[in-house]
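Side project, low priority. Logging it here so it doesn't get lost.
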Amino acid sequence: MMKFSAIITAGGTSSRFGNTNKLLEKIYGTEIIKYTVEAFVQAELDEIIIVANSSIVDFLSEMFASYEIVRIVQGGSSRQESVYNGLKAIKNCDYVLIHDGARPMITPELITKVKTAVIGKKAISVMTKTIDTIKEVDSFGKIIKTIDRSKLYNTQTPQAFEFNLIKSAHEKLQKENFTDDSGMVEALGIDVYIVDGDYKNIKVTTKSDLALAKIYLADR
């Protein structure tokens, strides 16, 4: 039987959010990070590893003390380093899903869809079709051209990979600074396939995002 692990990133400093860690902000009495983790618990993962900023490791350890499949690992100085710390902490799995802790609108249904897709494709990224018109602009602020958006997609998470594939990518590209795990796999010439995401699956980065999250989470 295939084993699935998840790495949930919580290593950021929330510099664009304000003076508090956005993951600990409460929406309807529940922390953002808890909404995120609960979705993965409901999707029946074998193991969930949260790679956390050192300032919240103890807090998260207490918060998830009763969750048998959840472990807290200290994050690194970059997202890439944090994910690698998570990969090194995984004991035994066939596939791993990597997700932003600040995307609390993720659903068990979408996670399950990603789990199914990665078995056949080995590398998956959740994405949504770009709906805005995209312009290329030069350094003087002049529009150069309008880009055909029919093939453009916005990247979300989770992204999912065959475990040995993504761990090998991290080992080979340790000295780089990727903000996207599928980009690492792409850089090695390996195909990555998409799963259609959800426009509600936003990343909470600013206070305005928090207000939107409250609307989306109202029916939870």
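Brief comment: Residues 14-18 have pLDDT under 50 and may be disordered.
Revisit when time allows.
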